[in-house]
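Hey team,

Sharing the Adenylyl cyclase-associated protein run so nobody has to redo it. Sequence (478 residues) first:
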Amino acid sequence: MEEALIKRLEAAVTKLEGLSSNGGGVILSRGGDFSAGAGTDVASTDPSILAYEDLISQCVGRALSAAEKIGGPVLDVTKVVAEAFSAQKELLIRIKQTQKPDMAGLAGFFTPLNDVTMKANAMTEGKRSDFFNHLKAASDSLSALAWIAFTGKDCGMSMPIAHVEESWQMAEFYNNKVLVEYRNKDADHVEWAKAIKELYVPGLRDYVKSHYALGPVWNASGKPASAPVKGPPGAPAPPPAPSASLFSAESSKPSSSSNQKQGMSAVFQQLSSGSVTSGLKKVTDDMKTKNRADRSGAVSAVEKETRTSKPAFAKTGPPKMELQMGRKWAVENQIGKKDLIISECDSKQSVYVFGCKDSVLQIQGKVNNITIDKCTKMGVVFTDVVAAFEIVNCNNVEVQCQGSAPTVSVDNTTGCQLYLNKDSLETAITTAKSSEINVMVPGASPDGDWVEHALPQQYNHLFTEGKFETTPVSHSGA
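Structure output:
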């Protein structure tokens, strides 16, 4: 009986081998394992692999064609993107032939794709080039390829389609900067940015939606996942594995309540017997602080000088005053500059002042919005604001309005002197978590002095007729 069954199996295997030699598609050895040509066969017949090859040839090819017209770092990073898509194609082929590994094996399995991603990230580091937005957009977009690591709803990742869309949203910030910068300057850069976007949305997103909406499907009857290909002989070896797991069996075992009780009772027993404190040194009266002559409590002049001679300096970036993307004036980290002037501005632009100290800024013209953030002893003189003037996280600032401003907002600020013109007396002033706010308004006569009004910072809240009524606190002097 057994010999007949073996002969039948032999005949079936021989028949399958004959089919494979005639283009049948599956190449098996007598042991049932995939042969060396299995990967090529899957790539040429599987619909999902063929669709991925179309994605590479069309969408990646379009991005490469646009990058070749630009050259330089843009071409280099686009080639890395193409390399990453090729690496993912090989991983998709291997997944169809391989059993699903454990979590440690997954990290090793996806090493080729991770290495290419790290190569793209390295191109964004160091000194910023003129093509930083291109490099950052391409580098950040590669995180979308991590959809291939989705193993289920409990893996900590979004579903594959959502992951691709979310990852592209991160990269789109820099891609839009490329579009804005080169929209009216160079059509090649605009074409590159559009090609990169269409590579992921709708390109990769639609591919994942059609073939891997629930993630990749591993081959339960395939071969075990192998380690990634080792580098050349001269390459450094990977770091050794830790000697013990952080979640080892010994550390994860909870101690029993009886052991805890025995341990604590033993401690109290030792304390009561004096065995723990027997080796401690006795403190005599002359060693006590109140009796020591060298500890009178007075602080010496030398000690005061050493304490005050080391002021703490906050880390600040380089000073900056520039128009970004034609829409936003950035004035940052200016210290001791009394002649800062913005003269060429329009109502569509905003002004953002950050980290300035002991400086004066003049804005000559109408702008949409002005914000002062984390500034100290800063003075700002402006003409007109379309939306609002905002003061946030500042100390001792002075602001003068020479035209009109619908709204002035003061938040988390200590010390603010606001000068209003006759045209801005109807300005709405909003304050929150702020103190020492004074508003100067013109006098009744043209030659009259400025009149100062202190805005209240204390309020009474009285519950009356089912609701709270809030009134500012008024102080009367004797």
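DSSP finds twelve helices and 14 strands in the chain.

Ping me if you want the raw files.
A.
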